[in-house]
Structure formats: C-alpha cells, structure tokens
C-alpha cells in the first residue's frame, strides 16, 4: 500500500500548506482562487465524462444512483460527518465541511484513483498512484487555500477508497476490466462537473446523493457489457 500511503500523505501536506494561505490571504484572493478551482473542476469532469463509450449505461447508473442516494439522504449523513469533525477539532472555518466533501469526491472519483489502486493491488509498482500523489498534493494547496482545513481530512476517505479497490483488485483481478474502469470514470466525470457547479454557485447539485451511481455503473457494465 506504499502508493496509497504516499498519496494520502501528499494530500495532508498540501492541505496543511494551503490552510496557512487560507488564514493569511484576504477574502477577495480566496474568492478568486475558489472560482479558478471551480472552473478547473468543471473542465476536468467534462474531459472524463466525454470518454463514455456506452451512454445509456451511464445515464441509467446516474438515475438509479440518484434515486438510491436521495432515499438514503447521503448528503445529510456526509454533512453530519463533516460538521462532527469540525466540532470535535474546533475549527471555525465556515467552509470546512464543503472542503472536506468536495476534496474527498474529487480525489476519489477518477480513473487514476481506480487504475492506480488496481495497479498496486495486483502487485505492480504504484507508478499511477505516485503520479496522482504529486497532482493531489499541489491541488490540495489550492483547494485548502480556498476552502480551509477540511481539505486535509479528505485524505481519510481517499485512503479507505483506494485501499478497498486495491484489496478487491487483489481478490478479483479479472472482474475489474477496462470496460468497467471506462464507464466508472465517465460517471465520475459527470459527478465532478456537479461539484464544479456547486463551487461556482451556478446551481446547487446534491452530488453526494448521486454517489451510488458509481456502484450501479459497475454492476450494469458487468451485466450488460461482459
């Protein structure tokens, strides 16, 4: 799990550095950084979403995932977790929970997280996760500068998510094929676009409630695209 450990550590270090800037920068500089990162997040999501090879699978996954997430009120559960961390750690930053949730989703959703974890889980050198660690570390500086210390704690779900995929890759190597990864990445891209919309306050989208679509897309791909 060396690659996953380095990735997690990079997010923590980048988040710590960015948090210092967050406390030192005037509000107007924080706002422009926030807007710049919002634009970047939308462009990243679009670049992932347009790679979908089976649009119907992605659409059905998003619809089923949204219905499941809304029925479970996942957004409320995650918000409570972020607020609990903020209260326990006595942070006063109003955007703590937003930083925790947004950064967690961005760092977990994507082809590099999945491919890197699979690469490490199958016993190969974790080149992808090490590359992702460098990217996440630098982006964590910018995110934390705009959103504060909540970004640091996104390292926890990242470690759990990538570690779980690595374990599954070790146990079920043949199941996680490229078709699954491509469609998973495309659905993740749509969710990331939603995060960008939220960051820019274009439209409030309950991205967390659509997260179960990542499970549905794996199931639908394995069933209908063997």
What is the global morphology? globular
Radius of gyration: 17 Å
The class by helix and strand makeup works out as mainly alpha
State the major sheet: none
Using DSSP, what is the number of strands? 0
Mean pLDDT: 87
Task: Count structural domains.
Answer: 1
Q: How many helices?
A: 10
Given as residue ranges, the uncertain stretches (5+ residues, pLDDT < 50) are: none
What portion of residues belong to β-strands? under 5%
Describe the oligomeric state of these chains in a short phrase: single chain
- Helix content bin: over 70%
Give, in order, the helices and strands.
HHHHHHHHHH
Query: Between the first and last Cα atoms, what is the distance in angstroms?
Result: 30 Å
Description:
The chain is mostly helical. It has one domain. The chain is globular and about 55 Å long. 46% of the residues are buried. The chain is built from ten helices and no strands. The model has no long low-confidence stretch (mean pLDDT 87). Helix 1 packs antiparallel against helix 8, helix 2 runs antiparallel to helix 9 and helix 3 runs antiparallel to helix 10.
List the helices and strands and how they pair.
Layout lengths: L1 H23 L2 H23 L5 H18 L1 H16 L6 H13 L2 H11 L5 H21 L7 H17 L6 H22 L13 H12 L2
Condensed summary:
The chain is mainly α and 226 residues long. It has ten helices and no strands.
List the keywords.
78% helix; 0% strand; mainly alpha; single chain
């Amino acid at each position: 799990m060396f690659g996953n450990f380095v990735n997690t550590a990079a997010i923590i270090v980048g988040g710590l550095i960015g948090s210092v800037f967050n406390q030192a920068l005037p509000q107007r500089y924080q706002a422009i950084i926030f807007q710049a990162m919002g634009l970047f997040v939308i462009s990243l999501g679009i670049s992932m979403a347009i790679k979908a090879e089976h649009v119907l699978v992605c659409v059905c996954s998003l619809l089923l995932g949204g219905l499941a997430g809304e029925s479970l009120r996942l957004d409320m559960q995650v918000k409570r977790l972020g607020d609990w961390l903020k209260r326990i750690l006595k942070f006063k930053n109003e955007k703590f929970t937003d930083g925790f949730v947004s950064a967690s989703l961005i760092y977990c959703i994507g082809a590099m997280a999945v491919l890197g974890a699979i690469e490490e889980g199958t016993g190969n050198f974790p080149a992808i996760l090490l590359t992702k660690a460098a990217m996440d570390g630098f982006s964590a500086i910018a995110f934390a500068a705009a959103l504060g210390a909540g970004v640091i704690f996104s390292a926890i779900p990242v470690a759990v998510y990538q570690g779980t995929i690595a374990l599954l890759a070790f146990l079920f190597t043949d199941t996680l094929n490229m078709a699954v990864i491509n469609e998973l990445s495309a659905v993740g891209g749509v969710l990331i676009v939603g995060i960008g919309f939220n960051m820019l306050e274009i439209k409030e989208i309950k991205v967390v409630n659509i997260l179960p679509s990542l499970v549905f897309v794996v199931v639908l791909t394995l069933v209908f695209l063997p």
